[in-house]
Amino acid sequence: MIEAIGINNVETLGAYMLARCYIRTENDFHNMVRVACKSVMILLPFALYEWFTGQKPLLTIFGLVFPTSDISMIDGRWGLTRVQGPFGHPILYGVFCGSVVGLAYSVLGYRGSALARWRKTALISLATFMSMSSAPLAGMVLQFAVIAWNSLLKRFEWRWKLLWAIIFIAYLVVEVGSNQTPVSFYISHFTFDAQTGWYRLAIWECGSATVANHPWFGIGYGVWEEKLSWMGDSVDNFWLVMGMRHGMPAVIFIFGAYMAVVLPAAFKKGLDEKVDAYRTAYVICMVVFVVVGFTVHFWAAAYAWFMFMLGSGVWILEQKANAYTASRGQRGTLVPESASKPMPGVLSRPTGVEVGSSEGRTGQPSSSQRRGT
C-alpha cells in the first residue's frame, strides 16, 4: 500500500507539476505538442513492423534493460496485430496517439498549408488506428467531428451552444427511447464487436454495485466481490476504477480538478486568434479524455500523460486581454487595439469624420488661406 501511494503521487502530482512548471505560454504549449507528435512519428516505423509481423521490437529492446509487459495473448483483428508499442497495452498506445490528433491539426497546423496540416494529422491517425481499439478510434472520430463543426460554423457565434443543445437532445432520446442509461448505451455500442460491448456493460453494472457498497473509501487494491463468476479482474473504465479503489470522494476530487482547469479555459475571454485556436484544441482533447475514460482505464504512462495534459492547459487561464479587442471587423477578424491608436508624433483624425473631408485635415491651411492670407 505504501508503494502504491508513492507511485500514485509521482504519476499524479509529478506529471501535473511538470506541465505547470514548463508550459507557461503558447510557445511552450506549441513545443510540447511538437515533441508529442514527433514521439508518435518516431514510434511509427516500429508500430508498422509490429502491426504486420506481430513482433514487438520496442519491448524486446527495452526488455534487455527494464522489466516490460508483453501482452502477446491479445487476439488480433482482421488478420493484423494490435500494436502495443512501448506501452503496457494496445489500448494505451491508442490513447496516447489519439490524444494528439486534434492538437496536431489545430496547433502544429495553425496558419500552415492544408497539405502540411493533413499530412501530420493523417500519420498520427494511422498510428492511432493501428492500436485497433474501439475507444481511441471513437475519440479520434469525435475530435475530427468537433473540429469540422468548428471550421464549418466558425462565423456562427452560437455554434457551441447549438452543439450542446444537440448533445442534450441526443441524451434525452437515449434516456426516454432506450431501456439503457446514456452511459450504458455508449459503453455497449461504441465497440468493435457486440461481445466486448456487453462485457463492458456487465463491468459497469457490477462495478457500480461495488462503488455503492463502498462509497467512501472504496476497496483499495483488493478483489471486487460483486463481479460475476465468469468475469475477470480487469475494469475498462477509468472513472469507475477510481470509485472502486478510492471511493466517490476521489472521483469528485479528480473530476473537480479537471473541471477547475477545463471549464475556465473553455470560457476564457479576450484571447487572440492564435491562443484561441490552441485553447479550442486543448479543450477538445480534454473532453475526449473524459469520454474515452468511460471505456478505458488509464494506468501507468497513460495516466501520467493524462495528468500532464491537464496541467499543460493552465497557462490559458493566466492569459490577460492582449492587444486584440473583442470587437470584430466586417470579415470577422480580430482588430488590434494598436491599429486604432495614433502613432507617437502623428495627429489623429477626429472620430466621426470621413476621411478626405476638410474638417479632418488638421494642421493644413484652408483653401482661403492659401489664396491670399
Automatic annotation (TrEMBL):
Name the UniProt record assigns to this protein: Polymerase
Domain spans labelled O-antigen ligase-related: 122-254
The keyword rRNA-binding appears for this protein: no
Pfam families recorded: Wzy_C
Keywords assigned by UniProt, alphabetized: Membrane, Transmembrane, Transmembrane helix
Compartment annotation: Membrane
Membrane topology term: Multi-pass membrane protein
Segments traversing the membrane: 90-110, 122-146, 158-174, 247-267, 279-296
Family matches, as InterPro entries: O-antigen_ligase-rel_domated, WaaL-like
A Gene Ontology cellular-component term: membrane
Region (Disordered) residue spans: 333-373
Biased composition (Polar residues): 359-373
Domain of life: Bacteria
